[in-house]
Amino acid sequence: MHKLGLVPTICMHMATDAPPLPSFNLSRCRLIARAATIAVRYLAVRRQFQLSPAGDAETQVLDYRAVQQRVLPQLATTFALHFTGKHMQRLHAHHQAHPNPELLQEVHATSAGLKSLCTQLTASGIETLRLACGGHGYSAFSGLPEAYTNYVAQCTAEGDNYLLKIQTTRYLLKALHKASTGAGLPSNLAYLAEDGQVTDPPPPPALLGEEISFTMAMLAIRARRIVTTLAGNMQACLGQGVALPEAFNRHGWEVVRASDAHCQLVIAQSFHRELLHLTDRGDVQGTIVTVLQQLLLLFATSTVMEGLGEHGTQMWIISMMALWLGCWSPAWPKCELA
User: Of 17, 107, 234, 284, which one is least surrounded by beta carbons within 10 A?
Assistant: First the structure.
């Protein structure tokens, strides 16, 4: 039996037994949770070909590295979206109890970018899981084709998803300017006030907690660099007499990248905060905490890998991350979920 046996159980609970909640991205996580449950269970049971000498049982499809590299990040995304939704609900509840205009702006701007990114992650995640199931994913019996076709339209339910990202990026540019004056920023924007020109590489991570901190730092460095680069380019445009809407238009793709980079960091941070919250309250067993920590690390690492080329001239980051990820990725069995 595959060591991922605990995960489908958790996913199924999230997909079916969770209480009714506002739609933000908890509803989205339930959809990708269902798809992840279907895919992981099928791939853990399905056997195909032999990697061992003749006579042994066929290999579980989930044991193939190429399958793991497609399926497990989607599993991690499921939990990342779940805990991000919990965190955003907590912020919203705090604002209702203690109205704060600055917090309202933060929640609005962050939720706009998250809504855009989370719908993309859910739609692409369901399709990735469907493809990983091969012929079973083609079959309507699996439920995956219906899940994808029923959901993918949500990416444009209110029009072009990219327009939501502009709201987030406008807020980030204002926050960056505010940080340049020495004013304080909310905790999830604190990275904008830090020195973006990191020259001394941190020590190579060795323990699970260090690996999580390392990847979170890389996500923050990447997000800050994208936002600061965009701010410089926008300032140059405005200095040439270009109107603000046209400046946003000229740097449209950078606007999208800035929003996504920030929201990816927010998702990882929210996952981490909610996990610490669960641990402090003692709501979950130690073995489950370890599983969730591994999923957090997998989500953050997968995200860093996708944006590895966005660190610009800070080549030591690219070299170090490539070296560390190259050593870590083939070693995924060390992070098998008990």
Answer: 17
